[in-house]
């Protein structure tokens, strides 16, 4: 199969608004090549507690950051590419209008595309995915890397495949932090839009007695099931292809939904229906500019807001039924 690779040239400052725009459009499988990230990791190595850093990633610090996404080389894929290019142009217009501040520099915001074979890109992102400690006790490690755990660390083995969710994005780490704080030993969990299965596996490692991961994408379902098996939690975690509103009768003590703002708003009421009394709803993937809108929908669904966390341009909300 052939794919269309779209490379968008930006600046270090432009990476966050650009990736936020991609997530809002539902585009996954994003590869970010930003040389400045490696330098910042060295400056904050005690905070992130990486097992190691590949020194080759520190070369060419002056190189222009590039955000890459991929589409199938079909009529629909080509249409999506053209829509994306228009969205990039609109992002540039917003920058010129001062939406991001008059001193903001999002770089060229130039998009170019080329057709590539499956083998040319499917493993390219792996060189950027290294072991990372994402909460006080959880470490996410790609299956092809080695890591020696210390103390009470719990190591999640992950191979995201084509599913979205390596566990190191702000939206995912905030979800895991909130789960670590609010999930009690022996409680049940629903993971809505489970993607690679990262949150479902994390819930099992944090003491959940039963986890149900729901996902509508069949490719993601296969990947999530493989990851669950690789982590030895198949007896605790079920990955089900389907939709919360149509294919789930069960209730849980905690629901995690790392999605995007419109979906969180849409799922607030169904989440309340699927939670036990006193249960906790954790939602993430919410741009801070839409925080109040999402918070309002969650309150109107009968929840009490417990906590709101923010990282970069993203926020996560914990609420109790």
UniProtKB/TrEMBL annotation:
UniProt key word Methyltransferase: yes
EC number(s) recorded for this UniProt protein: 2.1.1.-
Any one GO MF annotation of this record: rRNA (adenine-N6,N6-)-dimethyltransferase activity
InterPro entries, per the entry: Ribosomal_L11_MeTrfase_PrmA (IPR050078), Ribosomal_PrmA_MeTrfase (IPR004498), rRNA_Ade_Mease_Trfase_CS (IPR020596), SAM-dependent_MTases_sf (IPR029063)
Keyword GTP-binding: no
Annotated Gene3D superfamilies: Vaccinia Virus protein VP39 (3.40.50.150)
PROSITE patterns per the UniProt record, alphabetical: RRNA_A_DIMETH
Catalytic reaction annotation: L-lysyl-[protein] + 3 S-adenosyl-L-methionine = N(6),N(6),N(6)-trimethyl-L-lysyl-[protein] + 3 S-adenosyl-L-homocysteine + 3 H(+)
Protein name: Ribosomal protein L11 methyltransferase
Origin species: Zhenpiania hominis
């Amino acid at each position: 199969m052939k794919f269309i690779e779209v490379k968008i040239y930006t600046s270090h400052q432009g990476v966050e608004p650009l990736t936020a725009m991609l997530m809002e459009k539902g585009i996954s499988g994003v590869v970010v090549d930003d040389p400045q990230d490696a330098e910042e990791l060295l400056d904050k190595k005690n905070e992130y507690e990486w097992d190691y850093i590949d020194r080759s990633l520190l070369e060419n610090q002056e190189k222009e950051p590039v955000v890459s996404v991929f589409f199938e080389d079909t009529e629909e894929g080509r249409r999506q590419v053209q829509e994306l290019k228009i969205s990039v142009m609109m992002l540039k217009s917003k920058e010129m209008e001062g939406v991001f501040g008059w001193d903001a520099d999002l770089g060229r915001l130039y998009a170019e595309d080329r057709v590539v074979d499956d083998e040319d890109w499917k493993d390219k992102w792996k060189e950027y995915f290294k072991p990372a400690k994402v909460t006080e006790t959880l470490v996410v490690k790609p299956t092809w890397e080695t890591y020696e755990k210390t103390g009470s660390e719990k190591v999640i083995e992950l191979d995201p495949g084509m599913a979205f969710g390596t566990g190191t994005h702000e939206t995912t780490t905030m979800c895991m932090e909130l789960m670590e704080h609010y999930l009690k030993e022996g409680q049940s969990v629903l993971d809505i839009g489970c993607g690679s299965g990262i949150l479902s596996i994390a819930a099992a490692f944090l003491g959940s007695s039963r986890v149900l991961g729901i996902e509508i994408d069949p490719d993601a379902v296969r990947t999530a099931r493989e990851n669950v098996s690789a982590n030895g939690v198949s007896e605790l975690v079920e990955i089900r292809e389907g939709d919360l509103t149509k294919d789930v009768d069960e209730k849980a003590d905690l629901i995690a939904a790392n999605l995007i703002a419109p979906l969180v708003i849409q799922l607030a009421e169904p989440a309340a229906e699927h939670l036990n009394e006193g249960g906790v709803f954790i939602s993430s993937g919410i741009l801070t500019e839409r925080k109040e809108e999402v918070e309002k929908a969650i309150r109107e669904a009968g929840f009490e807001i417990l906590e709101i966390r923010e990282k970069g341009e993203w926020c996560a909300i914990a609420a109790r039924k």
